[in-house]
Automatic annotation (TrEMBL):
<comment type="similarity">
    <text>Belongs to the MoeA family.</text>
</comment>
<dbReference type="GO" id="GO:0046872">
    <property type="term" value="F:metal ion binding"/>
</dbReference>
<keyword id="KW-0808">Transferase</keyword>
<dbReference type="InterPro" id="IPR001453">
    <property type="entry name" value="MoaB/Mog_dom"/>
</dbReference>
<dbReference type="InterPro" id="IPR036135">
    <property type="entry name" value="MoeA_linker/N_sf"/>
</dbReference>
<keyword id="KW-0500">Molybdenum</keyword>
<keyword id="KW-0501">Molybdenum cofactor biosynthesis</keyword>
<dbReference type="InterPro" id="IPR036688">
    <property type="entry name" value="MoeA_C_domain_IV_sf"/>
</dbReference>
<protein>
    <recommendedName>
        <fullName>Molybdopterin molybdenumtransferase</fullName>
        <ecNumber>2.10.1.1</ecNumber>
    </recommendedName>
</protein>
<dbReference type="InterPro" id="IPR005111">
    <property type="entry name" value="MoeA_C_domain_IV"/>
</dbReference>
<dbReference type="InterPro" id="IPR038987">
    <property type="entry name" value="MoeA-like"/>
</dbReference>
<dbReference type="GO" id="GO:0005829">
    <property type="term" value="C:cytosol"/>
</dbReference>
<keyword id="KW-0460">Magnesium</keyword>
<feature type="domain" description="MoaB/Mog">
    <location>
        <begin position="177"/>
        <end position="313"/>
    </location>
</feature>
<dbReference type="Pfam" id="PF03454">
    <property type="entry name" value="MoeA_C"/>
</dbReference>
<comment type="pathway">
    <text>Cofactor biosynthesis; molybdopterin biosynthesis.</text>
</comment>
<dbReference type="GO" id="GO:0061599">
    <property type="term" value="F:molybdopterin molybdotransferase activity"/>
</dbReference>
Amino acid sequence: MAALLPVAEAQQRLFALALPVAEELCPLADASGRWASRDIVALRTQPAADLSSMDGYAIRFADLPGPWEVIGESAAGRSFAGQVAPGQAVRIFTGAALPTGADTVLVQEEAAHDGDRLALAGEGPPRLGSSVRPRGLDFAEGDALIQAGERITPARLALAAIAGHATLPVRRKLRVALLSTGDELVPPGTPLGPDQIPETNRLLLAAMLADLPVELIDLGILPDRQDALEAAFRALDCDLLVTTGGASVGDHDLVRPALAAVGATIDFWKVALRPGKPMMAGRLGDAVVLGLPGNPVSVFATATLFVRPLIAHLAGAADPLPGTRTVPLGESLPATGARADYLRAELIDGRAHAATIQDSSMLRTLARATCLIVRPAGVPEAKTGDSAEILDIA
Ligand SMILES: Nc1nc2c(c(=O)[nH]1)N[C@H]1C(S)=C(S)[C@@H](COP(=O)(O)OP(=O)(O)OC[C@H]3O[C@@H](n4cnc5c(N)ncnc54)[C@H](O)[C@@H]3O)O[C@H]1N2
Ligand code: MOO
């Protein structure tokens, strides 16, 4: 029997199978969720001028406590062209440029304005520069804003826009083909024959990949016939093929022989992991191939630990692995064996409670779970209250 590969080693072997895909200049509106392929710097200074952060009056701090003569108005997009001399003020609105000569904003709640006369009607600005956003407060032209390998989050997208970018250097989208195998599988909603079950795994995977930069290619449900699998593999045109089912050692587990028959190289098969042991990874032509087990919970676990991180790696992520954190256990857990256990669990009052039955076919347990408790291979029993690593999944 092939040796079981530790999870972390399997992840590194997987990343070593292929380099990130080519980069492209992507319009901002399509760049959300991609990874930057180069460092992104500011093309402009923000704000480009001293701006008011409040509605009120631009004054000279030295003139306090007033009164002032109001000589004009500065609004966002229509700044005041003139100079503010001693004793003068300019009506100003949030986001508008501070006129030359003014250095402070008196908020309108603390002002009495009548015609062109302005008087203090409150405590007034506490210091020089109150309610002013100085030029370059956020960033200056040339500042490094996003590093290569960082994800374009919604906030970074907005940052890139205000920094003057219309396009961003990112990795192109990945073409990911999904295929399920099994004679018992029919599309959800189909009336079921006695030996049939609704197919879940392509749906599950598509939903789990929805936030990633992928174009999915649905290769459907294939029967447990090697010729059908070989035909699908020969016609492949993608960056990544993910199959589910038929990965184990039974007479109808044909993914591995079919891959071998079409010339794929299998880098590893079987990971020291429960659920998800009979997972294979390799290459077929230019494509990376991941053969996941058929049990839906095993698909969830292997997609979390391998498919999503691999996609992130190929899409240029510097840090493709999912984050974990530590919480106390709600109950004791038994020692582990040769495989790492990823236990479906719920967090209640900050403590992780593992489901009593951890069968890899049980979707109801998975659907209730909010985290997976990570129990490394070969660790002793853990007691109630001991800290355990978890991976959030909901
Ligand atoms: N003698 C051994 N038997 C098994 C071993 C082993 O080491 N020796 N490993 C077990 C483990 S662990 C797993 S996990 C499974 C994985 O087997 P396969 O990848 O070959 O999966 P299948 O047999 O095709 O299916 C397993 C199970 O999942 C259902 N299934 C499959 N695909 C779907 C789908 N797309 N949607 C819904 N349900 C699906 C299928 O009907 C089976 O019930 O092997 C163990 N056996
Ligand atoms: O490793 Mo299998 O995924 O337990 O059921």
